[in-house]
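Run log, item B.
One chain of 238 residues. Sequence copied directly from the ordering sheet:
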Amino acid sequence: MGVEGCTKCIKYMLFILNFFFWLVGGVILGMGLWMRHEPTTSSLMGLEFEGAHVPSTFYMCVYIMIGLGAIMMVVGFLGCYGAIQESQCLLGTFFACLVILFACEVAGGILGFKNRDTVTREVINFYDSVYDKAEMESLTSKDTKAAAVVLRTFHETLNCCGKGTVTNFLTRVTDTLGQTNLCPSSGTSYNCHDRIEELLSVKIYVFGIVAVVVAIIMIFEMIFSMVLCCGIRNSPVY
């Protein structure tokens, strides 16, 4: 249309970047939905004991991720269309949306970094409370209690047993003696604290990597959108 030379090159570069931005938004949306419904995580986060649920901090992050992915897809489409149509109005709106998203991402990144261990600590604390209750109930009663059911779900899902090496060994001994039935049948020697940290830390690192990639793309998009907007304004056609 109206722009020529370097500005025209920037126009198509912005279009390509926005297309990738739209794709990344789709990936984030898909990853958020996968983390929400992934069998291992869903089994743990859906547990309930004596009216208390596994802390929902992790799912709050997942829901934010789903919302961010959906918004990114809309904003990416807006940027693509604005670049191709050489619309100053659409590009200005696109730039404003990017600034807001970038500010939210930076704020969320800082908050997430400061509280990066909170999710793991909350789940471990929940596990410890259930473990202590299940051990007590199993040793004092032969009936299957709610705590033992919840604890065994933890153990079977994560393929672990006990809070550490000592509790792992003691629980296996009481299982062997027929006093309890808490450890998984696989005979694993992992302790559940390590398995919980491993499960959640991987997902937190995924959040971090995606956030860095998105931030880099957004910075370039903001620069290109402003340059293109200025080029359209100075073009003799307009």
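Observations after the first pass:
- The helical segments are 5-37, 39-45, 57-85, 88-114, 118-140, 146-158, 165-176, 192-234.
- Strands lie at 48-49, 52-53.
Flagged for discussion on Thursday.
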